[in-house]
């Protein structure tokens, strides 16, 4: 049984602080490059450090063409240039504070359909917590 002290630790202990973020004006090709380069699945979208949305790798896949063509890159380029990040990102996001408990963050993620929570203090993005971060944290407790 996990003790209560551990569950009451703040998410600041497990959040990723070196945030990869997209700006409102970035294009989807840049998003794809960031997903692949950093092997991440969620990227907050910011406007002057204020979170305005969240783009997930699955959002990007939804707009990519399912067909595999000989020149896949050009097809993706055409599709990506058709959409702006703001059209594809989730705007209905939930943010948490760095002092939110790990248990509270886990509860939010368990009850919702998304898998990442931007951590915002005084209106500024300071980190991100994903279901993977939580699972890794809980695994370490045993």
UniProtKB/TrEMBL annotation:
Coiled coil, from the record: none
SUPFAM superfamilies reported for this sequence: CBS-domain pair
InterPro entries, per the entry: CBS_dom, CBS_dom_sf, Diverse_CBS-Domain
Keywords: CBS domain
SMART domains registered for this protein in UniProt: CBS (SM00116)
Annotated TM spans: none
Domain annotation CBS: ranges: 15-72, 89-142
The keyword Protein biosynthesis is annotated on this UniProt entry: no
Source organism, top-level taxon: Bacteria
Pfam families in alphabetical order: CBS
Protein name: CBS domain-containing protein
């Amino acid at each position: 049984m996990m003790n209560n002290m551990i569950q009451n630790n703040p998410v600041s202990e497990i959040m990723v602080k070196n945030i990869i973020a997209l700006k409102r004006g970035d294009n989807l090709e840049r998003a794809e490059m960031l997903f692949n380069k950093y092997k991440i699945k969620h990227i907050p979208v910011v406007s002057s450090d204020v979170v305005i949305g969240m783009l997930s790798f699955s959002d990007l896949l939804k707009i990519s063409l399912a067909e595999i063509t000989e020149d896949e890159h050009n097809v993706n380029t055409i599709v990506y240039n058709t959409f702006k990040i703001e059209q594809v990102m989730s705007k209905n996001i939930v943010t948490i504070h760095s002092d939110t408990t790990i248990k509270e963050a886990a509860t939010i993620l368990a009850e919702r359909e998304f898998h990442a929570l931007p951590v915002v203090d005084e209106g500024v993005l300071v980190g991100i917590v994903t279901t993977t971060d939580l699972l890794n944290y809980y695994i370490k407790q045993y």
